[in-house]
Amino acid sequence: MALNLSSVATKKILNNVTSKIPQLSALCLRQKSQDSHDGHEDQKRELINHSRVRGIDILRNPKLNKGTAFTLKERQLMGIHGLVPPCVRTMDEQMIRVLTNFSKRSSDLDRFIYLMALQDRNEKLFYKVLCNNVEEMMPIVYTPTVGLACQQYGVVFRRPRGLFISIKDKGHIYEILCNWPERNVKAIVVTDGERILGLGDLGAYGMGIPVGKLSLYTALGGIHPSKCLPILLDVGTNNKKLHEDPLYIGRAQPRVKGPEYDEFIDEFMKAVAKRYGYNCLIQFEDFGNHNAFRFLEKYRNKYCTFNDDIQGTAAVAAAGVFASLRITGKQLTDNKFVFLGAGEASIGIANLLALAMTEKGISIEEARSKIWLIDSKGLITSTRAGGPISGPKKDFVKDYKPMTKLEDIVEDLKPTVLIGAAASPGAFNENVLRLMSKYNKRPVIFALSNPTSMSECTAEQAYTVTEGRAVFASGSPFPKFTLNGQTFYPGQGNNSYIFPGVALGVVTCGVRHISDMIFLRAAQKLADLVTDENLAEGRLYPPLSLIQDVSLKIATGLAEYVYANNMASAYPEPADKEAYIRSFLYDTDYECFEPETWDWPDA
Q1: Structure confidence at residue 599 as a pLDDT band (50, 70, 90)
Q2: Cβ atoms within 10 A of the Cβ of 404, count?
Q3: Residues 6+ apart with CB under 8 A from 220
Q4: pLDDT of residue 308
Q5: CA-wise closest residue to 588 among 220, 228, 58, 112
Q6: Helices 516-528 & 499-509 angle (0-180, nearest 10)
Q7: N or C: which terminus of the chain has fewer CB atoms within 10 Å of its end residue's CB?
Q8: Quick one: which of 506, 503, 504, 496 has its CA closest to 526?
Q9: Sign of dihedral through CA atoms 82, 88, 92, 97?
Q10: CB 450 within 8 A of CB 476
Q11: Does residue 33 carry a pLDDT above 50?
Q12: Which class for 260: exposed (0-12), middle (13-18), buried (19 or more C-beta within 10 A)?
């Protein structure tokens, strides 16, 4: 017989809750007086918050809403009986409905919109589906589909996520941060939208990148979503199409530059430290080249910060290079690297490879001599027109003849590794690929530009022209390809292999400053996780289906490193570091709101 509000059973439940109120209040007071890093304490805080919400507000709160998964007891206790259909469905049954709807969508953009709507109404179910279907879902919630979503953000925009801080808010950034409802933020991804993927200046439409990144912080790194905060710093846009876009959600004015812009960023960094502490991780994402490098150097030794376009891309690409050595049979220092592109990604990869080579016993100068960069003016040499080279490029200038055509450069230098990160689609044409195949038994070819439309070549092109001898990786996913009876599974050098694990290790261990050595150790750990079976299939990275375990292993390896080198501030040092990190991981299973199942504190 169904329970009703006058039944003996229901009264017993309510009396049980009432009897616990003094204990609950005591727990609340204790929680207000401490800021514990223990994952279990966070669960207790959630329990308190949940006890205060009732009725329709529960169904409108994505953190609490379970839809048809609420039991009959929960529905009556929480005042939602009759507000949801009478059937009770398990989470697994709900996932079937989600996957059915997902598969019926006609385009990847529609699938993106559907998943974002799911996140808006049922956070646990969204992450459960994403975690259980990483290979299918990740290209939708992040690259390449997120690029298309950013381009059409004015159309797909449904509900604000994170914080939008305008240059007009200068002087009041701390107050705006205080408007964010979560007080225990541990990780921020911030962008000013100037260089979104390979798509250029998208201004406020770039908010899709921090939102997508932080979804992967949770799904792949296990960081609780309440600890994650996406932020868009709106300083305008130089994209004239957006100025004329009636749906544009940002400041339709030219970008603010110079001292005013720098003061704005300075205020933002200080406000974050004041609100959330100096241990709060700040990940810079998709800033323009001219700002990305200088902000990294300016803030890296004062705040807990890194730039994913520079350091995350460097680590995942370096991991691919390290794994490729087991195929080519070469030592790292035996290679000659040519980069098409000399921006954030290329410079970051080049610097990390040079750092790795110094660990093999050669000088930094000799390491850099093995790395050649090509920018929009051609090969970076001291003899080319246009004056001296400045900025991060200067470390890789060569005393060599000027050259501009990629085919001529490849034929002249005969590189063993060709890396593209210039958003120059089709640059690795048949002639370039044929030359790489001519001079190398196993040519290493990385087409890293995102999204797929910007890739320097496709996996099929690389394998076909080199007759299956290419060691290939890309920034965006490519389908498996069969040639002469052998099936290749192209490795996707996605930053998602690196930044969730790095963030998890940094946050749980209380790392205050993130050095390049942390990213080198993460790259080395990722390469070690590639099996011989993976390499035989053409993979330079573990399958995406294993990426959550990869993140945990990277975080554990980093924990060992930072504690051994006095870089951690979370004490005491845990004896079992993997178990310690596991205790922080977000649980995607629904919570039970029936009082008899709650872990009440002692009176």
Answers
A1: low
A2: 12
A3: 134, 496, 500, 547, 548, 551
A4: 94
A5: 220
A6: 120
A7: N
A8: 496
A9: negative
A10: yes
A11: no
A12: exposed
First-to-last C-alpha distance (Å) of the chain: 35
Helix (H, G, I), strand (E, B) or coil at 458: coil
DSSP 8-state assignment for residue 284: E
Cβ 378 vs Cβ 384: under 8 Å: yes
Provide the β-strand partners of residue 165. 233
Instruction: Retrieve residue 541's tokens.
Output: 């990275």
- Measured in whole angstroms, the distance separating CA 585 from the mean position of its chain's CA atoms is 16
Distance CA 161, CA 368 (A): 42
Query: In terms of DSSP H, where are the helices of 122-224?
Result: 123-132, 134-141, 145-151, 153-156, 173-179, 208-221
Q: Return the pLDDT at 10.
A: 37
Tell the burial category of 273 from Cβ atoms under 10 Å away from its Cβ (0-12, 13-18, 19+). middle
DSSP string, 300-348: TTTSSEEEIIIIIHHHHHHHHHHHHHHHH---GGG--EEEE--SHHHHH
Q: Shortest CA distance to 283 belongs to which of 271, 270, 267, 295?
A: 295
Structure tokens at 376: 């929009």
- How far, in Å, CA of 582 to CA of 559, rounded? 12
> Which one is catalytic: 44, 124, 127, 142?
142
Helix (H) or strand (E) holding 188: strand 187-191
Residue 381 and residue 403: Cα distance in Å, rounded? Answer: 9
168 is catalytic: no
Q: Tell me if residue 20 falls in helix, strand or coil.
A: helix
Element (DSSP H or E) covering residue 23: helix 8-32
Q: What's the token pair of residue 459? A: 């996996």
| Whether residue 48 has pLDDT greater than 70 | no
* Catalytic, out of 73, 186, 213, 227: 213
Positive or negative CA dihedral for 553, 557, 563, 568? negative
Whole-angstrom distance, CA of residue 49 vs CA of residue 53: 7
Indicate if 586 belongs to the active site.
no
Helix (H) or strand (E) holding 191: strand 187-191
Could you give phi then psi for residue 26, rounded to 5 degrees? -60, -40
Name the 3-class secondary structure at 487: strand
Tokens of 347: 């410079």
Closest by CA position to 308, among listed 351, 345, 270: 345
The pTM for the full model equals 0.88
DSSP assigned state of 545: G
DSSP secondary structure string, 230-267?
A: EEEEE-----HHHHT-TT--S--SPPP-THHHHHHHHH
Q: What is the rounded distance in angstroms from the CA atom of residue 87 to the CA atom of residue 85?
A: 6
Q: What pLDDT shows up at residue 53?
A: 81
Tokens of 414: 């005969």
Distance CA 28, CA 270 (A): 30
Strands 337-340 and 371-375: parallel
CB-based contacts of 319, cutoff 8 Å, min separation 6: 493, 497, 498, 522, 523, 524, 526, 527, 540, 541
- 104-161 residue pLDDT tens: 999 999 999 999 999 999 999 999 999 999 989 998 998 889 989 999 998 888 888 8
Q: What is the pLDDT of residues 195-229, one digit of tens each?
A: 988 789 999 999 999 999 999 999 999 999 999 99
